[in-house]
Write a structure and sequence with these properties.
With 242 residues, the protein is of the alpha/beta class. The chain is built from eight helices and seven strands; from the N terminus they run βαβαβαβαβαβαβαα. Bound molecules: NADP nicotinamide-adenine-dinucleotide phosphate. NADP nicotinamide-adenine-dinucleotide phosphate binds next to helix 1 and helix 4.
């Protein structure tokens, strides 16, 4: 029997590359995002293996649409949430902050809750999300982005603890990449930029090994290690730009 994965945010960037790997491995893959044309382009690569659903995580009907996609895919063993937005916001434009929170917090809660309840009912499952290393400390250049990613890290810990309290057979993987060359970054001027294809391979491995937290890649594991050691009084005084 083919294993089944649902990937929300598979129309571009990391989510799309991860979907391509699972397709190549013969999984049944359910893909979602807001852009129908991109979904269809990906689905047409393996129409017998891939199901697609237009879905906006900020909308109340997103959970129902997820269930429709699971049905089309024939079930769900692994859930991967890749949907996310983020912008540098040095002038602290409030609409950018609120839109980021709507997708990365409200949409994140909506989708992880729907997946959690599905696995609860099913009796097993693996719930993975792509957060970021940006949640390690508050970033003045992208306040909402870093804060929402920190929220995602803590929310995954909370869901893990809850599942253990409820004696549920659900695994959790919080994937935290460093900079990846995708449309999210808009340009290539970021340091230590990784290729989405390489990052996707590491993500598939982390899910396969059921890693609880996966910082990608090793250079960023080192960076995060030292970043966490910086005392807050120093961190707040550092003019961090990319
Ligand atoms: N690129 C990086 O440097 C980097 C680093 C660390 C973590 N991440 C995280 O990795 C994840 C994927 O980002 P990416 O770099 O691959 O960027 P991307 O190419 O812009 O992909 C973002 C994906 O999220 C989907 N999405 C955005 N808003 C959505 C909504 N309201 N409803 C449903 N889907 C939505 C997009 O699909 P539609 O537009 O079709 O809806 C797209 O498929 C994000 O959570 C991001 O924060 C990225």
């Amino acid at each position: 029997m083919n294993k089944k994965i649902i990937i929300i945010g598979a129309t571009s960037g990391i989510g799309r590359e991860v979907a391509l790997i699972y397709i190549a491995q013969g999984w049944k893959v359910g893909i979602a995002g807001r852009r129908e044309t991109e979904l269809e382009t990906l689905r047409s690569k393996a129409p017998g293996q891939v199901s697609a659903q237009v879905l906006d995580v900020t909308q109340p009907d997103a959970a129902d649409k997820l269930h429709a996609l699971i049905e089309q895919t024939g079930g769900m063993d692994v859930f991967l949430l890749s949907s996310g937005i983020g912008k540098q916001n040095y002038v602290l434009q409030t609409d950018i902050e609120l839109a980021t929170a709507a997708t990365n917090v409200e949409g994140f809660i909506r989708m992880t809750n729907a997946a959690y309840h599905y696995f609860e009912k099913q009796g097993y499952g693996h719930l993975a999300v792509i957060s970021s290393i940006a949640g390690t400390k508050g970033l003045g250049a992208a306040a909402a982005y870093s804060a929402t990613k920190g929220f995602q890290n803590i929310y995954m810990d909370a869901l893990d603890q809850l599942a253990r309290m409820q004696k549920l057979n659900i695994g959790f993987t919080d994937i935290r990449p460093g900079f990846v060359a995708t449309p999210l970054l808009k340009d290539d001027s970021y340091p230590m930029l990784m290729k989405a294809t390489n990052v996707a391979q590491d993500i598939v491995k982390a899910i396969e090994r059921k890693k609880r937290v996966a910082i990608i890649d090793w250079k960023y594991r080192l960076l995060v290690f030292f970043w966490r050691l910086i005392p807050k009084w120093i961190w707040l005084r550092l003019p961090v730009r990319n």
